[in-house]
């Protein structure tokens, strides 16, 4: 019989697999704007953008939301906070599209009372259905420890963005793997930082990141939805 740690690992591998059909392949979350402005054009410049994205938006929005849900904050309240803090419309919509899809998949493969509660809030328009909360609801219901869930969620987001950058910049596959190895250190630092954040830190993101995400909506030509 599999031990608990192995069960957690297998569940996280399924939840964070790049083949999980949540639509992550369709989103750049703003880095395409930097490509269009020729500020991101190679492995080094994308790595700098990715570091900033991990330490700011992933840490202070998604990551902190996951931790607070594990600490038993009301999921509807956290959902409202995410909707309010994700100022760029496309990024807010991306979070909800991927979150609702994850809730749908989770209901079939990892059903739980917690998940059904959040799904009901979404289907009755009392919540938007954000991706980090959908992930956290599933992971917590499976008994996955917070630190493992955070690391898996953050690294899955980084992996999706890097795969999209490999296509968009473009970068070679080996460059993508080097970037992921470097980003792993950033993810580990983010997990540690999230442990010490307070609710007042929620949504503390560089205006530059948010402005680039807003500009994407009116970009002349683009590959991604956000």
Structural account:
- This protein is mostly helical and 226 residues long.
- The protein has one domain: Urease accessory protein UreF, CATH 1.10.4190.10.
- Helices cover 70% and strands 0% of the residues.
- The chain has ten helices and no strands.
- The protein has helices at 4-16, 31-36, 43-70, 75-85, 89-109, 113-123, 131-141, 146-168, 173-196, 207-216.
- Helix 3 (43-70) packs parallel to helix 9 (173-196) and helix 7 packs across helix 8 (146-168).
Question: Summed up, what is this model?
Answer:
By secondary structure, the protein is mostly helical. It is built from 10 helices and no strands. α3 packs antiparallel against α8 and α3 packs parallel to α9.
Keywords:
single chain; 226 residues; mainly alpha; Urease accessory protein UreF; 10 helices; 70% helix; globular
Domain tally: 1
Instruction: Please report the total strand number as a whole number.
Output: 0
C-alpha-based Rg, rounded: 17 Å
Strand content: under 5%
Given helix and strand content, the structural type is mainly alpha
Here the CATH topology equals: Urease accessory protein UreF
Under CATH, the homologous superfamily reads Urease accessory protein UreF
Q: Please give the count of helices.
A: 10
Distance between the termini: 43 Å
CATH architecture identity:
Orthogonal Bundle
What is the class in the CATH system? Mainly Alpha
Instruction: Using the alpha-carbon principal axes, give the shape.
Output: globular
Give the biggest beta sheet.
Answer: none
Order of helices and strands: HHHHHHHHHH
Give average pLDDT, whole number: 94
Poorly predicted parts: none
Helix percentage: 55-70%
């Amino acid at each position: 019989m599999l031990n608990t740690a192995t069960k957690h690992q297998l569940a996280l591998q399924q939840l964070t697999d790049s083949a999980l059909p949540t639509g992550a392949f369709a989103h750049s979350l703003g880095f395409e704007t930097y490509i269009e402005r020729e500020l991101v054009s190679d492995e080094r410049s994308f790595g700098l953008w990715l570091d900033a994205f991990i330490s700011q938006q992933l840490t202070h929005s998604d990551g902190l939301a996951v931790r607070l849900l594990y600490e038993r904050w009301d999921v509807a309240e956290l959902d409202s906070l995410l909707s309010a803090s994700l100022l760029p419309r496309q990024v807010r919509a991306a979070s909800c599209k991927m979150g609702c899809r994850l809730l749908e998949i989770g209901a079939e493969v990892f059903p739980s009372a917690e998940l059904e509660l959040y799904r009901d809030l979404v289907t009755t328009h009392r919540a938007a259905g954000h991706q980090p909360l959908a992930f956290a609801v599933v992971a917590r219901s499976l008994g996955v420890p917070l630190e493992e869930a955070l690391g898996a969620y953050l690294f899955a987001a980084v992996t999706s963005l890097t795969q999209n950058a490999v296509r968009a910049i473009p970068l070679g596959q080996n460059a993508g793997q080097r970037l992921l190895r470097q980003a792993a250190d950033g993810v580990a630092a983010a997990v540690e930082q999230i442990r010490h954040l307070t609710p007042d830190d929620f949504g503390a993101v560089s205006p530059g990141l948010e402005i680039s995400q807003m500009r994407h909506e009116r970009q002349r030509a683009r590959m991604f939805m956000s």
